[in-house]
Backbone:
């Protein structure tokens, strides 16, 4: 018996990278899964790869840029499984464009998906968690949620916003037995840089060198499961790049000198 046996876990952004790795990890733990992303065919591929009973996996297409139907989707999960135990807000988009070359509509798009989409889904699920007096909400941030970096002004802003929202929410629901975990990955080997949006609204279509050398999505997923089980409030996952978070906190002027010398990619 594991900590996640028969738990109902809803994962957004479940068709690649960390989201897909989380789906696989939870399936192996005996959880019941709700997997969401925009592409139904890819969700079906992930479901087939999980190799668990059909009745234990619900495919629920979701576009975080349009959350007008989130309450209906939440109700569908409740109707199917009777409850929601863990919500993992993993879906999102990254950015690779200079601030001066990024139209405001691109900034708004990134904020809509990464922040408002996540908030909308969380607010839809929250009443059910409060009613059952149990549950876990996970917000997928980034070390970019702790400091800005080249080509990521709107992306970093969206992740900073998540910290403010979920830290406040954690305080408000502390006595309701609902836990909030903020995950801050560093360099994880996923397609996040390939799918990152550019200033013209297209895809970056390039794997960052540092991303290519990053920690595997599977290893990242295992650390997230451990953090959930231990009821941590925040967890940093990655390699030596995580040192930057602590340098900024303790030696902010030194951090500024160091970070400006980093390779912009």
Residues:
């Amino acid at each position: 018996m594991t900590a996640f046996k028969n738990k109902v876990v809803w994962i957004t952004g479940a068709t690649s990278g960390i989201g897909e790795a989380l789906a696989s990890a939870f399936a192996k733990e005996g959880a019941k899964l709700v997997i969401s992303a925009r592409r139904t065919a890819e969700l079906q591929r992930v479901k087939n790869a999980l190799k668990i009973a059909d009745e234990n996996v619900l495919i629920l297409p979701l576009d975080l840029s349009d959350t007008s139907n989130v309450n209906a989707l939440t109700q569908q999960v409740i109707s199917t499984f009777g409850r929601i135990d863990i919500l993992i807000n993993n879906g999102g988009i990254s950015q690779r464009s200079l601030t001066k070359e990024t139209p405001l509509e691109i900034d708004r798009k990134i904020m809509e998906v990464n922040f408002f989409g996540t908030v909308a889904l969380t607010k839809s699920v929250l009443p059910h968690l409060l009613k059952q007096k149990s549950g876990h909400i996970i917000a997928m941030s980034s070390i970019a949620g702790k400091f800005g970096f080249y080509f990521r002004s709107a992306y970093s802003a969206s992740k900073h916003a998540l910290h403010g929202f979920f830290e406040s929410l954690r305080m408000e629901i502390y006595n309701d037995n609902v836990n909030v975990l903020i995950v801050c990955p560093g360099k994880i080997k996923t397609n996040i840089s390939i799918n990152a949006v550019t200033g013209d609204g297209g895809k970056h279509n390039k794997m960052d060198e540092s991303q290519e050398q990053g920690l595997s999505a599977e290893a990242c997923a295992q650390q997230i499961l451990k953090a959930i089980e231990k009821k941590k409030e925040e967890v940093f996952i990655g390699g030596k790049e995580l040192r930057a978070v602590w340098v900024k906190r303790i030696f902010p002027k030194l951090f500024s000198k160091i970070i400006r010398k980093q390779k912009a990619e």
